[in-house]
Amino acid sequence: MEKIAEQARGRLWFQLYMWQDEALSYQLVQRAKDAGFEALVVTVDAALGNNREYNQRNGFSIPFKVSARSIIDMLRHPRWMVSVLGRYLATSGMPRHENYPARYQHRIAFGSGQAKPVRQSGMTWADIGRLREFWPGKFIVKGILRPEDALLAIEHGADGIVVSNHGGRNLDSSVASIDALPDIVAAVAGRATVLFDSGIRRGSDIAKALALGADSVLVGRATLYGVAAGGQRGAEHALKILRSELRKTMAYLGCTDVSELTPDIFAKTAPVRRETIETLPSQE
Predict the structure, then answer these.
(1) Which CATH architecture has domain 2-49+119-221?
(2) Whose CB among 109, 157, 209, 231 lies 3.0–4.6 Å from 196's, allowing a Cys bridge?
């Protein structure tokens, strides 16, 4: 994170996943503080590793394990081999978990049985309150899906919350973040910044979240896909696509400013009643 702080030109937030070893977690937060990060985002909806069956079927894991399938896949993408994997190997070697404590800074490939920090599975609001006291900057709690939890986050010092179900990657039966958003916005009532993520794939998705009361949205996969495909230019291009789609969506809606995106943009629909169906003309 120190290297990023030295080279980045934008504003820096640090996202924290609490570890069971609290001292190690606070060391990480202290490093972020010393490096000049202005906001701490504490993720509370990923206390345990999830069951990613798709990754299991594809043979993907960290540390990455080389298999016949992965070798074939890499050989089929020579440009990626040269520009991504080749660049890493030529400049700094195989990437490591660089923000981890020294004893956990393993390579992300070609290793097995590596020790790694265990996530805190029993996090409480008291833990949130202590982090708030320790962190001097803006404090954000990520992973809120209930109005009651939004209010508790504010009560324990949060300047902002992120309405998020972790992209639907953890609990497959979780409520959609977009469905949870309106009630949370109403409960918060302007007392904290309400950010939104999970499911942002197009500019029209951004418009929907803003219309339902989010102050801003966060994206992850879109820019990660861009980085994987084209490095920094790829990430910039992904953001450019989202901005373009948002502008077009607003133009079609007749909006010239994001402040004009309100719940009124949504069509009012009513359930189709049985008696309505029975009155339809017969096709016989």
Answers:
(1) Alpha-Beta Barrel (3.20)
(2) 209
